[in-house]
Amino acid sequence: MIISVASGKGGTGKTTAATSLAAVLGQKAQLIDCDVEEPNCHILMNPVLTMQKPVSLPVPKVDMSKCTLCEKCGQVCQFSAILVIGKEVLTFPEMCHGCGGCSLLCPEGAITEDEREIGVIETGMAGDVEFVHGKLRVGEAMSPPLIRAVKSMINPDRIAILDAPPGASCPVINTVVGSDAIIMVTEPTPFGLHDLRIAIDAVKELAIPLGVVINRADIGDDDVRNYCHTAGIPILMEIPHLRAIAEGYSRGRLLVESAPEYKERFIELFNMVGAMSKGTGASEVSSHA
Questions:
Q1: Which of 10, 285, 32 is closest to 179 using CA atoms?
Q2: What pLDDT sits at residue 265?
Q3: Percentage helix, strand, coil, to 5, in the chain?
Q4: How far does CA 150 lie from the centroid of its chain?
Q5: Would you identify the CATH topology of the domain 2-55+127-276?
Q6: CA gap 258, 70 in Å, rounded
């Protein structure tokens, strides 16, 4: 089973929820941090990382002795990563999406591909939880290729918890596609509701079962609850704004360590998500798992 934990905006408690959910599932879980631009699950999980693998993207390399300046390479590239200007072919590797179209269409075979490293994948164990995260190289503009590489590490024998990037753009879609269920973490504020609406609109075409967790639920207003009720979106859990949780987070502690009474609540959350996903193979987990 694959569960994506997402949010319309940063700072709602998405990573807090994802890490605690993985922690209560223990040896059944694999936690994958897909927020490759700013991964922070490791801060709360303290994994022992045992493997690092570079991730590269193919970019064009032009042999000008073969090139006839026909411009077919530039015409096929939607991102202007390769252009014919005068008697020169200019390449912009940072803009290349690695589709390989230019090399395939070059009639003279003048274009080959070089590998350009965009980031790394690191794996290890956080107690009984299998841990994976990606780290995008500083200055890289595109995270989806690295996110797809990180997702290739999904272990089908474990329950994969994917911590998605915040927002509703391409990195989020690349993370949640293929999931059996999505947990949207939000807060009961005007900003929280505004960005929750955008995120839900962005993923609804994927037809993936979705529910909401409201963090800091005892502040703000009832507009998020009213929206979920009207839209028919289940509220799976509400987490209050507890001092113990906030202090624990500031010290890098899991929510379920700072507030042990929430271990049972997160097990209930998983069982609700399993029921919500409607026959995706989720098995119920007991409080003694």
A1: 32
A2: 94
A3: 35, 25, 40
A4: 9
A5: Rossmann fold (3.40.50)
A6: 64
